[in-house]
Design brief:
Elements (H helix, E strand, L loop, with lengths): L8 H25 L8 H13 L5 E2 L6 E5 L6 E7 L26 H20 L6 E7 L7 H7 L8 E12 L3 E3 L2 E4 L1 E10 L3 E2 L9 H17 L9 E9 L5 E2 L2 E10 L2 H21 L3 E10 L2 E3 L1 H14 L5 E3 L9 H5 L4 E9 L19 H21 L6 E3 L2 E3 L1
Parallel strand pairs: 3-4, 3-5, 5-16, 6-15
Antiparallel strand pairs: 1-2, 2-4, 6-16, 7-14, 8-12, 8-13, 9-11, 10-12, 17-18
Helix pairs in contact: 1-3, 1-9, 3-9, 5-6, 7-9
């Protein structure tokens, strides 16, 4: 692949990381020891802002006071965003390490501290490129609050965080992939995740006389069993639209039919169009089943996040960047996940891609899954992430052009 910015990128990254990698690891460990939940990331936001200001940058803190974004480079030319999420999870840190969480019941068990350190490192490197006149556009660093809540992406967007941005890129820790690997996939990579609450009401009474009641428990059971199968038949099976119940409750004694009951669950979907149609489809099916058993049913449908749908050109930019800084073999296929990721909100408005960064020590048999109290990473992944993010931003700026233009990426014409 051609050199970016008129100079060899790899030696420059080597020099930067030789000096900065220990500080980035220390920064990650500091965040890990002081995790903060969504919309409470005040210390985290302050620490990030201090590092950016020390490099001569001007971070803009979001209106709620947590999370920020910061521009690097000239305003003319294309603009590329690199996004990190900064919030932690309400889990106890179970690791026996020097940087274990000092906050009871709160831990960085999803790698957001790593994401933050990587975007910070890439931003500081790109700031040096800008000072040398090697950045033909602007890179926006987004440090987003409340990804786990979710909702932080919407706050970034409301504050103008993606205004003028042509493409957005993000990395997410993958504990099932080795350090040095980057998992790529065009199209849907994570799913929409919504919550549904169904309430059923009707005249109750004695179980000895069900014909004089709505037999509400039986009706609720029919709703719980028939809705998922009926919903799956109303959409293309490739959308992976699924309704799964997590809680069902009705009644308190064995010989009385109750007046009301509830069912709560989640809807997950990999297809954006099916996701937008899901509330109306579900309500229509709910009313149909409820009418057959003469009960009243109401649906509360709470939107979570849309599916994260990677744009093919942006995935290719990731691939070309990885080939330059890690080698062709480092880019590997990655499966779809029905987990939610609010990076999908950005990709509804602008093209971009989310990739999975390997964080497992090569040769290790350890399994540190996400959202577990023992989750941890091989910290060599931080330097890998800095390389990938910096190279991807430069690839998009130098070779990518603006979406809709014909661009030369890695020597291949992309329309």
């Amino acid at each position: 692949m051609a050199e970016l910015g008129g100079s060899a990128l790899q030696p420059q990254l080597d020099t930067f990381l030789a000096r900065s990698e220990p500080a980035l690891i220390a920064f990650r460990r500091d965040l890990h020891m002081h995790p903060e939940l969504g919309y409470a990331e005040h210390r985290t936001t302050k620490r990030i802002a201090e590092r950016l200001e020390a490099a001569g940058l001007k971070p803009q803190i979001l209106p709620r006071g947590t999370g920020l974004f910061c521009d690097v480079g000239p305003e003319d030319g294309p603009t590329v965003a690199l996004r990190a999420d900064i919030d932690a999870l309400p889990l106890q840190d179970e690791k026996d390490v020097p940087y274990r969480s000092t906050v009871p019941g709160v831990a960085h068990a999803c790698g957001h501290d790593v994401h933050t350190a990587m975007v910070l490192g890439a931003g500081l490197f790109l700031a040096q490129q800008a000072q040398a006149g090697l950045l033909p556009g602007r890179v926006r660093l987004i440090f987003q609050p409340a990804e786990e809540t979710p909702g932080g992406a919407l706050d970034v967007m409301a504050a103008g965080g993606i205004c003028g941005v042509d493409r957005a890129f993000a990395l997410h820790c993958d504990p099932r992939a080795d350090v040095g690997q980057l998992g790529l996939r065009a199209g849907p990579i994570t799913a929409a995740c919504d919550k549904v609450y169904v309430k059923v009401t009707g005249p109750g009474g004695a179980t000895a006389r069900p014909h004089l009641t709505a037999d509400l428990v039986y009706a609720l059971a029919k709703i719980v069993t028939e809705l998922p199968s009926a919903l799956s038949r109303r959409v293309d099976p490739r959308s992976s639209l699924s309704l799964v119940w997590g809680r069902v409750a009705a009644g308190s004694v064995a010989n009385a039919i109750p007046d009301d009951g509830i069912a709560e669950g989640t809807v997950r979907c990999l297809d954006d169009q099916a996701w937008h149609r899901a509330p109306d489809m579900m309500n229509s099916l709910l009313q149909s089943v409820a009418a057959a058993y003469d009960v009243e049913a109401t649906l509360e449908y709470v939107r979570g996040v849309p599916p994260t749908v990677n744009e093919a050109t942006s995935v290719q930019m990731f691939r070309d960047a990885v080939a330059q800084v890690l080698g062709d073999e480092a880019a590997v296929p990655t499966p779809q996940s029905l987990g939610g990721e609010d990076f999908g909100w950005y990709l509804e408005s602008i093209p971009g891609a989310l990739a999975r960064l390997g964080v497992r020590k090569p040769g290790s048999n350890a399994e540190y899954d996400l959202h577990r109290g023992d989750f941890d990473v091989d910290e060599d992944c931080i330097a890998v992430g800095v390389r990938v993010l910096a190279a991807t931003a430069l690839t998009a700026l130098w070779d990518g052009g603006r979406p809709g233009d014909t661009a030369q990426v890695g020597g291949t014409a992309l329309a």
